[in-house]
């Protein structure tokens, strides 16, 4: 997102005020193109990127796994009941919970009321996540970060819901 260029001192102050009052939205960094997924890749969502470009919204990019201390790339993990296990059997719950707590703190400090998070993830999934069998099967559920944000009053949507929001908004214009 590019802010208008100002040249006078007064207009620089105005620009700072505009930025300060623009709505900040928490967003999975991989949806914006950051290579932070377990496989070392990104999953850019053109709908999410367009949403930030089309509106006066400021992205607050996060990757709970990285914030919890996990490397990129890393062994795939899935939620298995109350734990998060890697495909090779290691318990990664503590790192995922630490990342979720850091994301919540960032969200509250920046004033975010909405989070757009990557679907199906053991951190960010909302509504459906992988079932813990590492077979690609989905089950109803939420990632640990999504759960924590929702419990603290933050609305969580995935990239598909962001796309529907963008389409709905353009139809009403």
The helix content, as a percent range, equals: 25-40%
Which whole number gives the mean pLDDT?
87
Reported for the largest beta sheet, the result is: 4 strands, parallel
Helix-strand category:
alpha/beta
**What's the CATH architecture?**
3-Layer(aba) Sandwich
- Contiguous uncertain segments of 5+ residues: 1-20
DSSP E strands, number: 8
**CATH hierarchy, class:** Alpha Beta
Number of helices: 6
- Backbone shape: globular
How would you describe this protein?
The chain is an alpha/beta fold and 173 residues long. It has one domain (22-171): Rossmann fold (3-Layer(aba) Sandwich). It has helices at residues 9-21, 46-54, 64-67, 93-110, 144-151, 159-171, and strands at residues 23-28, 57-62, 77-80, 83-86, 114-117, 126-130, 138-142, 155-158. It has a four-stranded parallel sheet with strand order 2-1-5-8, sandwiched between helices. Strands 3-4 form a two-stranded antiparallel ribbon. Strand 6 (126-130) and strand 7 (138-142) form a beta hairpin. Helix 2 crosses helix 6 and helix 4 (93-110) packs parallel to helix 5 (144-151). The protein is globular and about 45 Å long. The two termini are 21 Å apart.
């Amino acid at each position: 997102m590019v802010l208008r260029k100002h040249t006078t001192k007064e207009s620089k102050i105005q620009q700072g005020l505009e930025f300060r009052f623009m709505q900040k939205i928490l967003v999975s960094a991989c949806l914006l193109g950051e290579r932070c997924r377990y496989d070392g890749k990104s999953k850019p969502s053109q709908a999410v990127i367009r949403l930030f470009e089309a509106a006066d919204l400021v992205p607050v990019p996060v990757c709970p796994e990285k914030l919890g201390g996990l490397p990129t790339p890393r062994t795939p993990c899935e939620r298995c009941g109350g734990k998060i296990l890697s495909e090779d059997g290691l318990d990664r719950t503590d790192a995922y919970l630490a990342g979720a707590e850091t994301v919540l703190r960032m969200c509250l400090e920046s004033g975010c009321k909405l989070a757009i998070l990557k679907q199906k993830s053991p951190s960010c999934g909302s509504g459906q996540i992988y079932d813990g069998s590492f077979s690609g099967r989905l089950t109803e559920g939420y990632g640990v970060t999504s759960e924590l944000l929702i419990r603290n009053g933050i609305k969580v949507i995935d990239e598909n819901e962001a796309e529907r929001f963008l389409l709905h908004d353009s139809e009403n214009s």
